[in-house]
Amino acid sequence: MTERRLFIRIELTASARARAEAAGLGVNAAASQSLDDRVQVGDRLSFGGEPADDFVVLRRRYLIGSGPAILVLDVDHPARN
């Protein structure tokens, strides 16, 4: 059996997109190198050194096809407790 590679893609809510753009954060570039499939709903993701740069995972889903699998993480900002 051939091993399939998993890719991770982040989809941002409107407020998360606004924060990422304002802070100059490249969340998909950072995610592809540092996240794996253990990320769960409710996890906080920080793309900067400040708590204001924390995002929260709202949903996760897998896109399965004939090619590589994609884990899609829907992310929101601000991260709330």
Strand numbers in spatial order across the main sheet: 1-4-3-2
Order of helices and strands: EHHEEE
* Terminal CA distance: 42 Å
Rg measurement, Å:
13 Å
Can you give a write-up of this model?
This protein is globular. The protein has one domain. Strand 2 and strand 3 (54-63) form a beta hairpin. The longest helix has 10 residues, at 14-23. By secondary structure, the chain is of the alpha+beta class. The mean pLDDT is 85. The protein has helices at residues 14-23, 27-34; strands at 6-12, 44-46, 54-63, 69-76. It has a 4-stranded mixed sheet. The protein is built from 2 helices and 4 strands. The chain is 22% helix and 35% strand.
Task: List the main descriptive attributes of the protein structure presented here.
81 residues, four-stranded mixed β-sheet, alpha+beta, single chain
Summarize the model shown.
The protein is of the alpha+beta class and 81 residues long.
Layout of secondary structure:
Blueprint: E1 6-12, H1 14-23, H2 27-34, E2 44-46, E3 54-63, E4 69-76
Parallel strand pairs: 1-4
Antiparallel strand pairs: 2-3, 3-4
